[in-house]
Design brief:
The chain has a single domain, classed as P-loop containing nucleotide triphosphate hydrolases (Rossmann fold, 3-Layer(aba) Sandwich). With 159 residues, the protein is α/β, with parallel strands linked by helices. Helix content is 26%, strand content 28%. It is built from five helices and seven strands, in the order βαβαββααβββα. The two termini are 25 Å apart. It binds adenosine-5'-triphosphate and magnesium ion (MG).
Length: 159
């Protein structure tokens, strides 16, 4: 059964903190989609998530490189951005499905490429609450059978 847990953050720093806490719940093989409009905070979330997995050094947007890899506590953290890819076959060519066997994948704009991604663990949707403010709604949806609902709710509840 799928489920969704929501929270609000009031700054980029808070989004990074929330993401780092969620990363502590991640498991090898997880594929996490980051959804949201331009500038919503997908890369900001990825930065916090990476820090939570022990990635040192800067995590920058993969908008032009498409895919970056960082060694992390669970193997490799794959950070992809499929915004610039026009065809699903290009997304499939990134090979995330195989690469993620040795780690975790974060895919910005992955919601538009679901058929090319294989099984998705979570979809994290980041939505500006008010264009003028820094507040964001962060919704974590589990796409399949996932036993982490309570743990995710605990993390988001304390955000
Ligand atoms: N609550 C918040 N959560 C996340 N980012 C925030 C928040 N408030 C302000 N920001 C700012 O919004 C911007 C989000 O940029 P970011 O690159 O993370 O977005 P993105 O969704 O990855 O964009 P793109 O679609 O271009 O990849 C940053 O400048 C960040 O500091
Ligand atoms: Mg981005």
């Amino acid at each position: 059964m799928s489920w969704t847990v929501r929270a609000r953050t009031t700054s980029a720093a808070r989004t990074r903190e929330l993401a780092a806490s969620l990363a502590a719940l991640a498991r090898k093989g997880d594929v996490v989609i980051l959804a949201g409009t331009l500038g919503a905070g997908k890369t900001t979330f990825a930065q916090g998530f990476a820090r939570g997995l022990g990635v040192e050094g800067p995590v920058t947007s993969p908008t032009f490189t498409l895919l970056r890899q960082y060694p992390c506590a669970l193997g490799q953290l794959l950070h992809a951005d499929v915004y610039r890819l026009d065809h699903l076959v290009e997304v499939a060519d990134l090979g995330l499905g195989e690469l993620v066997e040795d780690g975790i994948a974060l895919v910005e704009w992955g919601d538009v490429a679901v058929p090319a991604l294989g099984p998705v663990t979570w979809t994290v949707s980041i939505t500006p609450v008010d264009e003028e403010e820094d507040e964001r709604e962060v919704a974590v949806r589990a796409e399949g059978d996932d036993d982490r609902r309570g743990a995710v709710a605990a993390v988001l509840g304390s955000a």
